Please model this.
Amino acid sequence: MNPVVLYHTEHAKKTRREILLVAVDIASAEGLENLSIGRLAKELRMSKTGIFAHFGSKQQLQLATVDAASEIFLQQVVQPVLQIPQGLRRLRAMLESWLGYIEQSVFRGGCFFAAVSAEFDSRPGKVRDNIAALTKAWVVALQDEIALATANGELLRDVNQNELAFELHAYVQEANWAFKMFNDRSAFMLAKSAIANRIDRAVNPGSIKPSRKLRSAK
Amino acid sequence: MNPVVLYHTEHAKKTRREILLVAVDIASAEGLENLSIGRLAKELRMSKTGIFAHFGSKQQLQLATVDAASEIFLQQVVQPVLQIPQGLRRLRAMLESWLGYIEQSVFRGGCFFAAVSAEFDSRPGKVRDNIAALTKAWVVALQDEIALATANGELLRDVNQNELAFELHAYVQEANWAFKMFNDRSAFMLAKSAIANRIDRAVNPGSIKPSRKLRSAK
DNA sequence: CCTACCGATCGGTAGG
DNA sequence: CCTACCGATCGGTAGG
Model:
């Protein structure tokens, strides 16, 4: 009789996953606060308490929704680039994969984390802390890849790694903002161009791959 | 007996302004949707209908709040730079002024327009359209200043003006995001550095002012 | 600018 | 997973 998950059956887990898929979509478009239990119940044709029983409180629902969005981000953006060799190539792939996930509108409201971080940046609590930790982890992942690319000799040693990560991250977030606000896909071209130019300036000319086209041999 | 503003007296206008100052602050931190009439009434120690009578509907309240925020932005960010000569110097001043308004936390929840554009990008309607028009106007103002700086010969003619505006705008929005999310003021240093480097790369070396320190004479 | 009210919806509980 | 509730709050109206 656990109030959080009534029966730990496979069926209950499946229902929970279905609820969270809808929750992530609603939250990305209308916000985590406006994600009401009644709204979810209507969309899923369940009773309010049927939804409620899976989470136990509104805050637990919000936390579960953030976790579910994080899993989708990992699966859609991070997983596909893990096969690419670490360093400069993976850095480029991470940014391309991230832009692709925004452009393909994986979530109804654009990048889930851009939406909810703006919503919760002034709302102290566990939800905000989780969002901060997850978005920070992605920034750190970009920084780590820049550090590896430098260690590989692919990037110039005097490049400020924090600045580079800040600027690359900014281009993708700006593309998401401009695309959602003005419904103009040219923002993706601008972001790709900014990323390519910014990285090319940091590339070590001694390493033989300033861009793919110029690579002569393996 | 106009339901929107009951009495067009000076006193009523003053009350309306007082309501909107609180409304802008609440909306920047908690969102324009969560800006409820009851919440405003409590904070201002007025009755709900006392607030309501000034606007006539929730949507009109939201629209008035966006307008009020726009006036504050104009006054805090735009007005101070109008005395600076147009072109490269004003472009730099616009970005510095904008960063300053974010760092000084003019609104409780950081940049009002960053917050509400993320909130309304998936909510079609007049409120969203107004937010889009106002944020677009600021992007265009940056683009216009870049065009003037180019016409002045201060920026290189082969600089892509849309790309430059996109990247500069991105740095400031990223600083707002990082500051609000991680409460880390180093984001402002990163943004200032990114802006200075990006502009310096676009500066025409023929014009004698790549940076203030290197200027030899007037 | 107020009191007094409306139906709808909110998060959450009792009990099954 | 359900029905049947709870008090609080929502946007909005009547009438002054």
